[in-house]
Specification:
alpha/beta, Metallo-beta-lactamase, Chain A, Oxidized Rhodanese, domain 1, 3 domains, six-stranded mixed beta sheet, 15 helices
């Protein structure tokens, strides 16, 4: 038996390739599915089955894409009306070589959520692993707000029952492989761990130590952001996303072409915050490369063509992958020669002021500044700088009326990357005095400055 873990950066998404004796299965594939095809060739295995643990909300599932390439059958839970694939029920089993995969219905995160148990029958009839999707993570459990506030209580109750009646009784020795790792929007406190065990989670996972009443109460009060692009992902993952067959081809645009047509494009500068602050093309949006898989879904629409600005374009292929994983089929081109070509051509540049945390500490009570915290509400509640105002970066475009134009807007987040997104939004909306606090809260804490709650 072999197990390969395929990680998707930015999304903190894990998918799995499982094989035995010439046959293979894939669990929760991503849209750019060449990794699974390559593993099948590497191990001389035919992919027979593709399983979806649930209708994913944060990325485009690659089941239809992969199935078209390898002619494998797709399976998912029966409590949602999918337009493709086959339904599975509790107790169904599938065999690939000596491996037996069993279906557990584990609703709560979504109604159709399933988990898959694994037995290596050449070794034992005992369950060896369980693939839990968004039901159980390392140190965390799935979110229960997908269907809206009115249904959180019912989802929380079902999730608790799935955990305590289906997952935990499998045995302390069983290895747990979830669909997400640390940094995913699908769980607030997921640990940085590729896998865990049921026994370890029973001892360390605070959510599993709660009574049912405590669990439901916690979920009712849990505050998590729900990006607008989730709706597009849910639609794609229920009806089937457009088949790509290959990565999109991006047009290399010279400076004159970009300058002439820039108003027709969504132009995204993927450099880091300090580079963007030092000089950037006017009317561009800054989202650092690794932030694309999450924040593009807040900031970009699915209709207007996207053009990428990078330092030297070494990362264009990876950037394409980041964007197609969250459903962007409108990626048009990139600036040939990278940002340097714009600068050396003598074109207009804009800059963003930067401050250290020491300068912010000195100016904290200055009435000419407006301190803006663009982190999530949970981060704000855990501690923020005195005098700051809170607007999450994802909501900023719709709350510009709350930000004065006659003051210097001093922006911070956790490190400065989200603050740079906010700074670019403000610049593009006529705010001339905008400052990014590089290092942000991490630097503030490291300097020993106080936070309030």
């Amino acid at each position: 038996m072999i197990l390969e873990i395929i990680k998707s950066e930015g999304l903190a998404h894990n998918s799995y390739f499982i094989g035995s004796k010439g046959d293979a299965a894939v669990i929760d594939p991503r849209r750019d599915c060449d990794s699974y095809v390559n593993y099948s060739k590497k191990h001389d295995m035919k992919i027979k089955h593709i399983f979806e643990t649930h209708r994913n909300e944060d990325y485009v599932i690659g089941s239809c894409e992969l199935s078209k390439r390898v002619d494998a059958s797709i399976y998912h839970g029966s409590c949602l009306d999918f337009s493709y694939g086959n339904y599975v029920k509790e107790g169904n089993t599938f065999h690939i070589g000596s491996v037996e995969l069993g279906i557990l219905e584990t609703p709560g995160h979504t109604d159709e959520s399933i988990s898959l148990t694994l037995k290596d029958k050449d070794v034992s009839d005992d369950i060896y692993m369980v693939f839990t999707g968004d039901t159980l993570f390392a140190g965390e459990v799935g979110r229960t707000d997908i269907y809206g506030d009115a249904k959180i209580e019912g989802c929380a109750e079902r999730l608790y029952d799935s955990l305590h009646q289906k997952i935990l009784p499998l045995g302390d020795h069983v290895l747990v492989f979830p669909s997400h790792g640390s940094g995913s929007v699908c769980g607030k406190n997921i640990r940085e761990s590729e896998f865990t065990t049921i026994g370890y989670e029973k001892k360390t996972n605070k959510m599993l130590l709660k009574t049912k009443k405590e669990f439901i109460k916690f979920k009712l009060n849990e505050k998590m952001v729900k990006p607008p692009y989730f709706k597009r992902m849910e639609e794609y993952n229920q009806k089937g996303a457009p088949i790509l067959c290959r990565l999109p081809y991006l047009q290399p645009l010279n400076v004159a072409e970009l300058k002439k047509n820039i108003s027709d494009f969504q132009v995204v500068d993927v450099r880091m915050a300090a580079s963007y602050a030092g000089g950037h093309i006017p009317q561009t949006l800054n989202i650092w490369k690794l932030g694309l898989t999450y924040f593009a879904g807040w900031m970009l629409d699915y209709e207007h063509p996207i053009v990428i600005i990078d330092e030297g374009n070494e990362n264009i292929n990876q950037i394409i992958r980041y964007l197609i994983r969250i459903g962007y089929n409108n990626i048009f081109g990139y600036l040939a020669g990278g940002f340097a070509s714009w600068a050396t051509n003598g074109e207009e540049l804009e800059t963003i002021d930067t401050w250290s945390v020491h300068k912010l500490n000195e100016a904290q009570n200055d009435e000419s500044i407006f301190i803006l915290d663009v982190r999530e509400i949970g981060e704000w509640d855990n501690g923020h700088i005195e005098g700051a105002h809170h607007i999450y970066v994802g909501y900023l475009k719709n709350h510009l009326n709350k930000i004065p134009k006659d003051k210097n807007i001093i922006i911070y987040c956790d490190t400065g990357n989200r603050a740079s997104i906010a700074a670019s939004i403000l610049k593009n909306n006529g705010y001339n005095k905008v400052t990014n606090v590089l290092g942000s809260i991490r630097a503030w804490k490291a300097a020993g400055y106080p936070l309030i709650k």
